[in-house]
Specification:
About 5% of the residues have low confidence. The radius of gyration is 26 Å and the shape is globular. A hairpin with an 8-residue loop joins strand 5 and strand 6. It has a domain of about 140 residues. The chain has a twelve-stranded mixed sheet. It is mainly beta.
Length: about 300
């Protein structure tokens, strides 16, 4: 064996293997989860409240007099090299983020309340929160009213619902299906709001995020959509819908419809009627664009 071959065999090759092992340790990850589920018999007149310091809230609907709750805590990271210390720390985190479920008997109003919070405070776990996720999924009767709030790193999803919706996502987006009851909600610094339709009144506010909504049927109640810092507002309408229109922004206004001006029309302000007028559609943006689109 030549000196070069010996050098490769006894020096280069072991170093290469060691490097691959270290790289594998650094790139491989920790994945850990903890799940909980619960089913409740309820009255259709009930109200669901979810208030969590962290996580995503998903609401689906059923025709049964039943509420199904599934909660999942998830940790995913690439820190296997620290595993002996980290695994115990993750277990403590899972234990510390407490999910409480309270509910009334099914022969009463049948309200259901879900709360998620850190017992030691969110700041105590700040260093690891980017790896930590919480998912709260609830199936409710279609007639239920819901009040939903997530304070950090989570979206809110609501399917088609006959009840009312109040949603607040301070660190994520809000996605709403076809809602028959009143809708109100807001997002924090960066969240978008998407609404497929509503047959009652609507009041939605986004800070820097966009709002996109569809008006699929003739409304009987006013809609107010507002972006307070920089978000755009897009509303898609069917051609037969009749509305009073009030649009205002420091940005650009565009419309696929012929709006009949009543008293004011400028580059940044448009007030008028569509198809003879009806409930008020009020779209106010700070600097973002406002667009009325034809379906």
């Amino acid at each position: 064996m030549t000196k070069l071959n010996k050098f490769i065999a006894f020096v280069i090759f072991p170093l290469l293997c060691l490097s691959l092992i270290i790289l594998g340790l650094l790139l491989s990850g920790i994945s850990q989860s903890n799940s909980r589920s619960e089913g409740l018999n309820v009255n259709l007149t009930g109200h669901l409240t979810v208030d969590t310091e962290l996580g995503t809230i998903n609401i689906e609907t059923t025709d049964r007099n039943h509420v199904d709750i599934a909660v999942k805590k998830i940790w995913r990271s690439r820190l296997l090299i620290m595993r002996p210390k980290l695994v115990g720390w993750i277990d403590e985190l899972f234990e510390d983020f407490e999910i409480t479920i309270e509910h009334d008997p099914p022969d009463t109003e049948s309200d259901v309340r879900i709360e998620g919070k850190f017992k030691r405070g969110r700041e105590y776990w700040q260093e690891g929160l980017k790896w930590f996720k919480v998912e709260i999924q609830v199936t409710v009767p279609r007639q239920y009213d819901v009040t939903l709030k997530t304070a950090s790193r989570g979206d809110i999803h609501v399917g088609d619902l006959m009840g009312t919706v109040r949603a607040e996502a301070l660190g994520g987006n809000i996605y709403l299906g076809e809602i028959q009851g009143e809708v109100s909600g807001e997002t924090g610094v960066s969240g978008d709001i998407i609404l497929k339709g509503c047959q009652s009144s609507v009041n939605l506010t986004a800070a820097t995020g966009d709002i996109r909504a569809e008006m699929t049927t003739q409304p009987q109640h006013p809609w107010t959509l507002h972006t307070s810092i920089s978000g755009a507002i897009d509303v898609t309408l069917y051609s037969h819908i009749a509305l009073d229109i009030d649009l205002q922004t420091q940005g650009k206004i565009s419309s696929d419809f012929s709006i009949q001006p009543q008293d004011e029309i400028t580059e940044n302000r448009l007030k008028g009627t569509l198809n003879g007028g009806g409930p008020l559609l009020k779209l106010h943006a700070s600097t973002g664009e406002i667009r009325l689109k034809r379906k």
